[in-house]
Amino acid sequence: MGIYEDIVERIGDCERVTRNETVLEQHSKGLAYHAPRKPDVVVFPNTAAEVSAVLAYANERNIPITPFGAGSSLEGHIIPVNGGITLNMTKMNNTLEIRPDDFLAVVEPGVTRMQLNEALKKYGLFFPVDPGADATIGGMAATNASGTNSVKYGVMRDQVLGLEVVLADGTIVHTGGMALKSSAGYDLTGLFVGSEGTLGVFTRLIVHLQGIPEATNVIKASFVCLRAAAQTAAEIMKAGVALGKIEIVDEQTIEAVNRYKQTNYLAAPTLFIELSGSATTVKEGTEIVRQLCEEGQCVAFQTEDDSIARAALWEARHHAAFAIQAAYPKKALLSTDVCVPISELAEAIQKTRQLVEEHGLTAAIFGHVGDGNYHTVLAFDPNDAEEVTRIETIHEHIVRYALARGGTCTGEHGIGIGKRRFLYEEHGDSVMLMKGIKQLFDPNGILNPGKIFI
Q1: pLDDT (tens digit per residue) in 198-234
Q2: For FRET with 72, which of 228, 256, 295, 298 sits at 20 to 30 Å CA-CA?
Q3: Which element (helix H / strand E) includes 369?
Q4: How far apart are CA 349 and CA 383, in angstroms?
Q5: What EC class does the entry list (predicted)?
Q6: Nearest Cα to 416, choosing from 441, 448, 440?
């Protein structure tokens, strides 16, 4: 028998095992530029026991396993570069338990952040990590995702209290627990979070929740130059106001959004700021931010506390990448993801804009100014060798600039396929320790091969 027949026999349901060409194609690629590769078969498990059975089978036969969530990966994590079995975890999408008094929920990996937040509304709670896409909780944990809320709530690793994980040989293990902190032994939960499916497959997650703030206010402030915006952001962070989000977008990106959305936002370097907390704290914080912006050469200042109007104000930030994609619909996208010390962010963005213009390309550049993470979204023709070379040159310059200033090649997207070579430049000899951990957990190398390491 072949892989298909063997797996059908093990999970007892031919409808959740498929070799359909359309389904294989859907599981061959992520959202970015990496070359697609179809799996040999796609499996939709319902339980940890089924995941265990598939992994034990694959491990015995050295068949690659690639976990798959919402498909919103930007670094090719979900591409089965060596074929084999793709495990689509979206049928494991139950919220198993909500414990509002403990500020936690127990979920299966296929639950998306929007599904979870909808279930949490009646308790006055929410899950704070927002990477933009409606990604699955399992996928977000696999890449240690973060996004716009990280300045206040931290990254995915800060939210995952415990895991149920299926190892390469089918063994099911549990890490962490329901306590908000622990000093018991090695932090295996933290090790698995961000491992990109290379150490095990998540089948259950215990996640930390937050209370929905009493009041929220969004501020859009435009400045005479990028440096003034970044310096003002630093002053706002020092002021101790109740920051929920603080983002920076350059003027060329605002112009691209205006063309895409037919809007007329002022084309200037812009800060998007969200304050959240008690009504009094937010009101006082807004006035402090207003004063700091005025002192920082702000040329336009707008606030909104209505939920619909707040969403409209965030449009320019959230649609930046879409604006570039819409302008070049037949081209592939590369999104850089470097993170630098906060004091270096304005200069890094300026250097990146100059670099992009020197190469005659168009890019959206925007950043999480609260943690020094910024993205450059570049559109290019993957079939044009000269253009690919230019894109790779720009990417290398951006990463090496960040590394030279104590930064990292990826703040939230992960290594996947696209940043493997930079991992060695960033971490040097310690990559051998990482490889040793990989070998310990996955001696046959079946778990998401071709990712993280060269």
Answers
A1: 999 999 999 999 999 999 999 999 999 988 998 999 9
A2: 256
A3: none
A4: 28
A5: oxidoreductase
A6: 448
Count CB neighbours of 417 within 10 A.
20
CA atoms of 23 and 21, how far apart (whole Å): 5
| Lookup: tokens for 64 | 């690659």
DSSP state for residue 264 in the 8-state scheme = -
Instruction: Give Cα separations from 447 to 40, 124, 373 (angstroms).
Output: 15, 38, 29
Structure tokens at 422: 């930079």
Residue 200 tokens read as: 């095990």
**Residue 344: closest CA among 254, 408, 291, 415:** 408
Tokens of 129: 């990590």
Residue 127 backbone phi and psi in degrees, to 5: -95, 125
- CA dist 67 and 52 (Å) reads 13
Beta bridge pairs of residue 201: 166
- The CA distance from 201 to 446, in Å, is 12
Residue type, 34: H
Instruction: Write down the residue that tokens 């050469």 correspond to.
Output: 297
Q: What is the DSSP string of 173-242?
A: EEEE-SSS---SSS-HHHHHTTSTTSS-EEEEEEEE-EEPPSEEEEEEEEESSHHHHHHHHHHHHHTT--
Count CB-CB contacts under 10 A for residue 338: 28
User: What are the structure tokens assigned to 189, written together?
Assistant: 């939960």
For the chain, list the domains and their CATH numbers. Answer: 1-212+415-454 (3.30.465.10), 215-320 (3.30.70.2190), 326-413 (3.30.70.2740)
* E strand or H helix at 75: none
DSSP for residue 267:
-
